[in-house]
Amino acid sequence: MSTTAYPPVSEHLDDVEAARAEGRRKMDWALQHMPILRALREEFEAEKPLDGQTVGMAMHVEAKTANLVELLALGGAEVAITGCNPLSTHDDVSAALDANENINSYAVRGVDEEGYYDAIEAVVAHEPTVTVDDGMDLVHAVHEDRPDLIDTIVGGCEETTTGVHRLRAMDADGALKYPVFAVNDTPMKRLFDNVHGTGESSLATIAMTTNLSWAGKNVVVAGYGYCGKGVAKKAAGQNANVIVTEVDPRRALEAHMEGYEVMPMEEAAEVGDVFLTTTGNRDVVVREHFERMKDGVLLANAGHFDIEIDLDALSDLAADRYESREGVETYELADGRRLNVLAEGRLVNLASPIALGHPVEVMDQSFGVQAVCVREVVENADAYEPGVHDVPDALDREVAEIKLAAEGIEIDALTEAQEEYMGSWQHGT
Ligand code: NAI
């Protein structure tokens, strides 16, 4: 049952039964390739670590996320979920989740700004005791609109770099009133999801959306962080010539030593064929860059918010604007040059009409970490002060061990002598 006037997804759809069946099919396919979540399902179902908890979530509602949601419900929680981006929801998956009596899903693809925030409000109205965010919109809503809930919230988890940045800023201001795990920052998440996940899925989505090749293209990657590294590596692997723009001298040097060209965006703008922003920052590609670009370039963003490419400035410059393919909007300038924007400048690997998000295996890892972190905030709530917390290393290792076991990979173990040696400072030459 919904607790606010804002209706769950099932009330937005014409053929709910068909949507649920298709959503379930997508979830089953993903689960077949998620050994970590399957192992945790057995544990959560048997031990019910989340009994009595209400988990509020704002995440990309698609098949992989849905398997995390069901895992939390199997662990004994009531779950209320909505999207963390207006374009990344799969309505059929959202409907399949909403059919579960312990889950309410308010996520609907293509909602306007008002609908987006109404849905977040609807999740908060369930009075969560745990929050799971991708971008921090839920933590923000709780602190702004329902501070009365803070005393009963045991903790939260944050999935992405931008959310962790926002949380750390909030924490530095003394404004964050409950503990939140920086799930993004764990090795099992960031080294795989941000790097391989963003790299593979962004490039695949762009190629499928445009039917264009990477080979021989000048691909400009803005930001050489975890996501940028993945994008650059995979683009180079597809025979593109990679150009990196950066503001951090060490990251720029890393890109240079990897063999990529490094230059300011002002120069890259003149030679790039494809521009992909991965900075988590604003105004990365702006008017002065559009003015220099070649006819036919592709502009896409993989950062969390749609503020990296200045579309207002591009609209001002454009003499005409039209949808040239599904998921591609062409801005035609007065001199006839056409600049093609994918997925409205929102994160392309999730917001494009054909987007499927990260590969399943990668999200199995990220969501495995999410699940054990939710279990941890519930079981050991008193151990964590309000603020941002690193995920305990033992939890990250637990997820890695489950995955290795599922893959049938064995590794060596430290001997006692090795352990003693590594922990000692007395040994010299
Ligand atoms: P990061 O902090 O590792 O890397 C960002 C890089 O951008 C840094 O090296 C920084 O120096 C650089 N940068 C900042 N401003 C810049 C500018 N004006 N021009 C050029 N470079 C600039 O962050 P990470 O983990 O790579 O995440 C980047 C963004 O992607 C975040 O918004 C994150 O939330 C999002 N993300 C998106 C995913 C997706 O599925 N599309 C998956 C994971 C993260």
Secondary-structure topology with pairs:
Layout: H1 16-32, H2 35-47, E1 54-58, H3 63-74, E2 78-82, H4 91-98, E3 103-105, H5 113-124, E4 130-133, H6 137-145, E5 155-158, H7 161-172, E6 179-182, H8 187-210, E7 218-222, H9 226-237, E8 241-245, H10 249-257, E9 261-262, H11 265-271, E10 274-277, H12 287-290, E11 298-301, H13 311-317, E12 318-325, E13 328-333, E14 338-342, H14 348-351, H15 360-379, E15 387-389, H16 393-407, H17 416-422
Parallel strand pairs: 1-2, 1-4, 2-3, 4-5, 5-6, 6-15, 7-8, 7-10, 8-9, 10-11, 11-14
Antiparallel strand pairs: 12-13, 13-14
Bound molecules: 1,4-dihydronicotinamide adenine dinucleotide (NAI).
Describe it for me?
The chain has 17 helices and 15 strands. It has 429 residues and is of the alpha/beta class. It has two domains: 9-185 and 358-407, Adenosylhomocysteinase-like (Rossmann fold, 3-Layer(aba) Sandwich); 196-346, NAD(P)-binding Rossmann-like Domain (Rossmann fold, 3-Layer(aba) Sandwich), CATH 3.40.50.720. An eight-stranded mixed beta sheet has the order 9-8-7-10-11-14-13-12, sandwiched between helices. The chain has a seven-stranded parallel beta sheet with strand order 3-2-1-4-5-6-15, with helices on both faces. A hairpin with a 2-residue loop joins β12 (318-325) and β13. The mean pLDDT is 96. Bound molecules: 1,4-dihydronicotinamide adenine dinucleotide. 1,4-dihydronicotinamide adenine dinucleotide binds at residues 160-162, 194, 198, 222-228, 245-248, 251, 278-281, 284, 302-304, 347, 349-350, 358.
